[in-house]
């Protein structure tokens, strides 16, 4: 019998072998999934920031209420937490303060402790 000799393919003429790697379609699919996950994460990060701002605002408001209470007890008079609620569209400073600027005011009394129905701001406000 005559042995059958198969010719060894040269590296240049390989036709049946596959090179390991990813196709362009597979790479694009992975990039699309990553983009979707990043957009979802970005929305979540924005919501975290809003939550922290709310927590900070609550803490500041509680501190101002405590300050008003302490001023009323210490002076033996009334105290108010004043929230800026006037809106003037022509004044940009007024617009930024609308419903965000708060300060504490106390009622002034005379020497006998009688309320004069005049209010004096005692904090610089926040």
Can you describe this structure?
With about 130 residues, the chain is an alpha+beta fold. It has one domain. Helix content is about 45%, strand content about 15%. The protein has two helices and three strands; from the N terminus they run αβαββ. It has a three-stranded antiparallel β-sheet with strand order 1-2-3. Strand 2 and strand 3 form a beta hairpin. The longest helix has about 50 residues, at about 25-75. The N and C termini lie far apart (about 105 Å). The mean pLDDT is about 80.
What is the total tally of β strands? 3
Average pLDDT rating: 81
Relative helix content: 40-55%
Residue stretches low in confidence (pLDDT < 50, at least 5 long) are none
How many independent structural domains? 1
Q: Give the SSE order as H and E letters.
A: HEHEE
Tell me the strand percentage band.
15-25%
The total of helices stands at: 2
| Arrangement of strands in the largest sheet | 1-2-3
Main sheet attributes: strand count, strand direction, barrel closure = 3 strands, antiparallel
Helix/strand/pairing class, anyone?
alpha+beta
Radius of gyration: 37 Å
- Give the overall silhouette: rod-shaped
Give the termini separation: 103 Å
Q: Keywords, please?
A:
single chain, about 130 residues, alpha+beta, three-stranded antiparallel β-sheet, 2 helices, 3 strands, rod-shaped
Fold topology:
Elements: H1 24-75, E1 79-83, H2 92-97, E2 102-109, E3 115-121
Short structural description:
The chain has helices at residues 24-75, 92-97, and strands at 79-83, 102-109, 115-121.
């Amino acid at each position: 019998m005559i042995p059958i000799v198969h010719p060894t393919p040269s590296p240049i003429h390989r036709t049946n072998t596959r090179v390991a790697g990813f196709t362009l379609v597979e790479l694009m699919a992975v990039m699309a999934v990553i983009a979707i996950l990043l957009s979802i994460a970005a929305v979540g990060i924005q919501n975290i920031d809003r939550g922290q701002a709310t927590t900070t605002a609550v803490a500041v408001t509680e501190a101002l209420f405590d300050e008003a209470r302490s001023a009323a007890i210490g002076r033996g008079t009334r105290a108010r937490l004043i929230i800026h609620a006037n809106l003037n569209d022509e004044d940009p400073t007024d617009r930024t303060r609308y419903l965000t600027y708060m300060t504490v005011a106390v009622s002034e009394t005379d020497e006998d402790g009688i309320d004069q129905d005049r209010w004096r701001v005692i904090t610089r406000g926040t």
